[in-house]
Amino acid sequence: MAARVFMSYSHIDEELRDQLEVQLAMLKRQGLVDVWHDRRLLPGDHLDWTINKELNQADIILLLVSPNFLASDYCYKIEKARALERHREGSARLISVILRPCDWPHTELQEFLVTPKDGKPVTQWADRDEAFLNVAQAIRRAIEELGQAKTPRQNHAFIDRPANGEVNESLPRSSNLRLKKEFTKAEEDQFLLDSFEYLGRFFHGSLAELQERNAGIETRYRRIDGNCFTAVVYQNGQKKASCTIRLGGMFGNGISYSQGDDAAANTYNESLSVSKDSQKLFLQAMGMPLLNMADSDTNLSQEGAAEYYWSLLIQPLQGE
């Protein structure tokens, strides 16, 4: 029979949970997993009793870890505690999925392997599909190790009709029930502005940490105005890397990256623009400097875009 998978998460992270469940589609189609979370509660179900039952019957327990997960007494004190107990007694496999940056290394979870790879939070991957694929692959390996998986289905049937022709009262159903979203120009402009502000905070914090961790390194973050900031890295007193990041850029509808902290407003080496699909807004890079890192088909989150621009700045110091 399919491995029973229990998802423990904060409702703040529901959108990320949905994205993970979409990435588990092939495991579902092959009949290898049966995923349960509290959105599958039926009218009349007793909340605590049903959650406790599902948690105790699960073969694999996914903890979707984020600041809100750690702040939730129910997630942290009840569901996490029971997941650790069952993992240690060998009756279930615990898999921690680090969704967003948080202080998880100071919990008991640091004793166990976490996903995605190296514990890098999902929101910090340039491509979230790749991050969730990494998680799905870990789940597949866990199923194989547990010996829970039956022979994968070849016909990928979702619903098996009972032999007597009757329909079960509780039918399986997809969690992929989201409809196409429409985004206004105001929402796109706000997303661009929020992304620029995030880049500013990201660079400010990263420069401070780079200086703290490395002897001989001095850094300087300077906010020029509401639409521009610069970043400089000195090594042993010599300027080694610098950049200027502007909201608007050459074409007035993106976020531009220019080498040097004195770059003219009409020059740039890279540019990010807002794009969208049926569910979300994201950033796309023109992909000029490093085609292996960003291209026109890469959908970047704010975190992914910040990591990309940071890589352009720090590359000279890493000898690449």
Largest sheet: 6 strands, antiparallel
The overall pLDDT average reads 83
Strand numbers in spatial order across the main sheet: 6-7-8-9-10-11
- State the separation between the terminal residues, measured CA to CA: 49 Å
Count of helix runs: 8
CATH architecture of the largest domain: 3-Layer(aba) Sandwich
Number of domains: 2
Q: How big a fraction of the residues is strand?
A: 15-25%
Quaternary organization? single chain
Poorly predicted runs are 148-170, 291-297
- The 3D shape can be described as elongated
Helix percentage: 25-40%
Output the helix-strand order: EHHEHEHHEEHHEEEEEEH
CATH level-3 fold name of the largest domain = Rossmann fold
CATH class of the largest domain: Alpha Beta
- Computed over alpha carbons, the radius of gyration is 23 Å
Number of strands: 11
CATH superfamily of the largest domain: Toll/interleukin-1 receptor homology (TIR) domain
Pfam families: TIR_2 (PF13676)
GO biological process, one term: signal transduction
Protein name: TIR domain-containing protein
Domain TIR: 1-143
